[in-house]
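WARN retry 2 of 3 for item q-0093 after timeout on previous attempt; input resubmitted unchanged.
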Amino acid sequence: MRSRVGPNKENQHFKPSRFSPPCTRSRGFGRDITNAALVPRTSDPSTLPEYAKEIYEGLYQGELRFLPGCGYMKRQGDITDKMRGILLDWLVEVHLKFKLGPETLFLTTNILDRVLEREQVVRGKLQLIGVVALLIAAKYEEIFAPEVRDLVHITDNAFTREEILATEALVLSLLEYNLTTPSALGFLGRFAKIAGVNQHTQTLAWYLLELALVEYKMLKYRVSLMAAAALFLASKIDQKPQAWSMELADETHYSEAELKNCAKDLCILAQGAEKSSLQAVRRKFLLPKYQEVARVSVFQAITPSFKS
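OK item q-0093 returned
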């Protein structure tokens, strides 16, 4: 895969154009314009506390609609799940270099998988589909999306501007412009708030979810289940007194027993991350910005029931 993004010395100086200062995903309100009688002064109006439960009930009902089938790779004749993993590992690096918001990466993966589920793709065009998925996700999620010329640059001119724009139109048509999809990260934010966990535990759960993005077999789980299992495992790793409360079970619709299989698969991914050939997610979460959560020893911290 041709790319100007990577760990070698030459690529360390890659700086996408027009991306300074870094773009962020935050869209806070300038002032609280909500009815003070309905919303306490201490609450954040951007979280819509009065409607949160109804909103997430709607997300639960809609998540299966946009969940790619975990067996779609069997219908692909020229690419494999390993190639998908290599592409997503590279996209994690590109996403980090462009300083895009976390939801953009999750939507990129969803778009990529839904395209591969519907269309057979030759390996020479797989990177093109990945770049276009990132472009579409960034246009949807970011205030300032990368320019097409930046995407041409990071692929080392493997694809032209015209190819990227033509493929963008094809992908949007194929997906019928359905881009509003629930993500595991969105559910994690809700679950972490209910659990009242600290930032380290929430970031550790986020790390587990990004490890799962690269792993094809994790498509067998609903995104809400994966978010719940990641928070459960992160709480276990951080040795919380109660990893899963009755309140969490009620709010998330998942009992502790229902989380075990997914949590074990996430645990295996975390245990093998250091020796994996795909290192982009781990390198990312070794940065101080992410509290270096990838350094946590899963083997030492978790209870024996979660050791593979």
